[in-house]
Design goal:
The structure holds 2 protein chains of 2 kinds.
Chain A: H1 9-37, H2 50-82, H3 89-111, H4 125-147, H5 156-175, E1 178-182, E2 185-188, H6 192-227, H7 234-248, H8 263-275, H9 277-292, H10 295-300, H11 302-325, H12 327-333, H13 337-367, H14 374-407, H15 419-424, H16 427-455
Antiparallel strand pairs in A: 1-2
Helix pairs in contact in A: 1-2, 1-3, 1-16, 2-3, 2-4, 2-6, 3-4, 4-5, 5-6, 5-7, 6-9, 6-11, 6-13, 7-9, 8-11, 9-11, 11-13, 11-14, 13-14, 13-16, 14-16
Chain B: H1 3-10, H2 14-38, H3 53-64, H4 79-85, H5 120-128, H6 144-147, H7 156-165, H8 172-182, H9 187-197
The chains are: A mainly alpha, B mainly alpha.
Chain lengths: 472, 208
């Protein structure tokens, strides 16, 4: 009797939902981008109003698309690196239904006007509690699987997924400390400047441990699998991991440069943000050197192309981040579209692309059939690249213009440009950004079709751990 | 035993790995957050009072509509910002801001010093149809604010009591008077009251 088969159906379920939320969340993003060009297309309807829909956009892509993709890939890879079936599959399924329900109701609650107004933690207290419970279930399934592993060392992708689970739990709980007043309204335990420092400790590290750490877990498992090469340097992985976990958490105050918070915490945040470049790029170098042995495959395999391009954007975004954290750069970039461009070079270029690449790798394996159309995947690749580049360039243009024009003084020492003039000058950039988003979304839609066709009429393949004594 | 073989032990013990991650990741937060959260960074400016009921209602509507996605409430101590908006922001102005609404993006202008800059009537027109007073504006209109009575669900007292628990010095009389203060007013009135009160606590503060 061989070992119990891997529980991969729940992986498929999370993957499907991730693709679904990607389409919905990005469509919401495209719509709010259009609202900045044609401000009346909310038709006076509260749920379509910019503020609410923009908040729904970030919530859907972060918690719907992003987290569903992270859980799908974590569950897939932790079984294969542990040579054991997922621990408590029933709990994993409960997590699946609970998480998707929370996304549906959470998005609806934001459109209905429930928000705690803390960025990337806008969901109100009932959802904060639901997310905490779901996260505990995620931790139990994940660490339970690791605890029962039949392989000695815990593979590095699991360290990153583990850091995602642990640190996000800590951030989520502290930042959402609040006192409920009604079912849909609470007040933060912290006020003013204190609330700001807590919020950006959360906000920056949600980027750090979810959008960076979690997706690095994805990278460390799926890149070597895809490239059919071992990770280039084991030692570099160790150093980069611990340096990353230690350093990232300090960088939050760079979101509060020149704000009403103590100077020491701003400077400390800036210095640690600069240091963060080292572990970020160490991982990038490790990834690129791993791919270097598989240059041939890069020409033919769309999945690998996505992952390698995502690594390039990862390098770009993790270089840009520390630069924007320098106070004298930040003075121009802060509050401008440059920030939005920076976020999207990471979110589209890194997070979305590595997820797409991973899905193109995973779905044929889960379905037991080759990808329906390699050609369509290649078209998606170019649409994704074009969309991301156009988005980032448009927002650079807009952001640098805003930064310089807002602070520009004339010879009498008065402000040279009215706010409204600068705002009106943004219109072409907003138009380009709308087109960029549409291009990126079109690519994602092609992927959805491609993956659905690959899976059409099939069930998730039953895979088993290797027999006792076999090597990973 | 070198550090790599030491690490081998860590990566074979899930409990140790979890503990290590928790320990290493919490240091930065403890150094940066604890002194600020426990320190004296939340005392109110002299004369600063918690938001009156109508302004609190307006602020909660400002939150509901996520106005903070496009408007900041933070004037940085830079010459151009002080010229454009007014005196730079200080921590003690925000002692009663739960949550803080400093924002991170200026799609529209900063609002920290908007109070008293425009008339109530201007705000009324602007909130209902921004392009009627600012032709190039890309702000959405909020026509429903005029249609909803303030405190539609009758929770103003519950909200004020919650804030009292968090340390806002509302008196029982303040809370008892709140429903009457909101009676007959619309959500639009409440938002305008909030905007008109914004930044007034620092009027007369020395200019940098």
């Amino acid at each position: 009797m061989s070992a119990a088969p891997y529980e991969d159906r729940v992986v498929t379920a999370f993957l499907y939902c991730s693709v679904f939320w990607a389409l919905i969340g990005m469509a919401a993003g495209v719509y709010v981008a259009a609202e900045l060009v044609w401000p009346t297309i909310d038709f006076g309807l509260p749920p379509l109003s910019f503020g609410r829909l923009r908040t729904a956009h970030t919530t859907l892509v972060l918690f719907g698309f992003g987290v569903s993709a992270l859980i799908a890939t974590a569950f897939y890879s932790v079984q294969r690196t542990s040579h054991v079936r997922l621990f408590a599959p029933g709990l994993a399924w409960a997590l699946f239904f609970a998480w998707q329900l929370a996304i549906v109701l959470g998005a609806a609650s934001i459109l209905a006007g429930w928000t705690s107004a803390k960025e990337y933690a806008e969901l109100e207290w009932p959802f904060d509690i639901a997310i905490t419970v779901a996260w505990v279930a995620f931790a139990v399934v994940f660490f339970g699987t690791i605890a029962r592993r039949r392989v000695g060392p815990i593979y590095i992708s699991n360290w990153f997924y583990g850091a995602l689970i642990i640190v996000i739990a800590m951030l989520h709980i502290v930042n959402n400390l609040e006192l409920p007043a009604t079912i849909g309204k609470s007040y933060s335990l912290f006020a003013g400047a204190q609330d700001a420092v807590v919020q950006w400790w959360y906000g920056h590290n949600a980027v750090g441990f979810l959008l960076t750490g979690g997706f690095l877990g994805m990278l460390y498992y799926f890149l070597p699998k895809q490239a059919e090469q071992p990770i280039w340097s084991y030692r570099l992985s160790i150093v980069a991991f611990w340096a990353f976990v230690y350093t990232y958490i300090w960088a939050g105050p760079h979101h509060l440069h020149y704000h009403a918070v103590p100077e020491w915490v701003q400077s400390l945040g800036m210095v640690m943000s600069l240091i963060l470049l080292a572990p970020s790029w160490a991982t990038m170098v490790n990834g690129i050197m791993t791919v270097a042995g598989a240059a041939k495959k890069l020409k033919t395999d769309p999945a690998l192309k996505f992952i390698v391009l995502s690594l390039a954007f990862y390098g770009l975004a993790t270089f840009e981040g520390p630069m924007l954290a320098i106070k004298s750069v930040n003075v121009f970039s802060h509050f401008t579209e440059w920030t939005i461009g920076h976020v999207h070079s990471g979110a589209l270029g890194w997070n979305a692309l590595i997820t797409f690449g991973t899905f193109y790798f995973l779905v044929p394996r889960l379905a037991g059939a080759p990808l329906w159309s390699t050609k369509l995947a290649n078209i998606h690749f170019w649409l994704a690249l074009a969309g991301t580049m156009l988005y980032v360039l448009a927002m650079w243009g807009a952001g640098v213009s805003q930064g310089v024009l807002w602070l520009s003084l004339d010879e009498l020492g008065e402000v040279r440009f009215s706010f409204n003039d600068v705002m009106a000058a943004m219109k072409p950039y907003y138009g380009l950004r709308f087109l960029a988003g549409l291009t990126f979304l079109a690519g994602a839609a092609l992927m959805a079709v491609n993956l659905a066709k690959t899976f059409a009429g099939r069930r998730t393949v039953v895979a088993r751990p290797p027999a006792e004594g076999a090597r990973a | 035993m070198n550090w790599v073989s030491l690490h081998h032990r860590l990566e074979r013990n899930a409990g140790l790995l979890i503990f290590g991650i928790l320990l290493v990741s919490s240091i930065g937060g403890m150094v940066q957050l604890l002194p600020i959260v426990t320190g004296d960074h939340a005392h109110a400016a002299p004369g600063l009072a918690p938001y009156p009921a109508l302004e609190l209602e307006g602020r909660d509507i400002y939150i509901r509509e996520s106005c903070g996605t496009c408007h900041t409430q933070q004037v940085r101590p830079l010459l151009a910002e002080v010229k454009r908006y007014g005196p730079f922001s200080r921590a003690e102005e925000f002692a009663y801001d739960r949550p803080f609404l400093w924002g991170s993006k200026r799609t529209g202008p900063d609002l920290a010093r908007i109070g008293g800059r425009y008339t109530d009537e201007w705000h009324r027109l602007h909130l209902l149809d921004p392009r009627s007073v600012v032709p190039v504006s890309i702000m959405p209109g909020y026509p429903w604010l005029a249609e909803h009575p303030a405190d539609r669900d009758g929770t103003i007292e519950a909200r004020m009591r919650t804030l009292v628990k968090l340390g806002h010095p509302y008196t029982e009389a303040d809370i008892a008077a709140a429903p009457a203060a909101l009676a007959g007013r619309t959500e639009l009135d409440a938002v305008i009251a909030y905007l008109q009160g914004m930044g007034r606590s620092m009027q007369g503060a020395p200019q940098p």
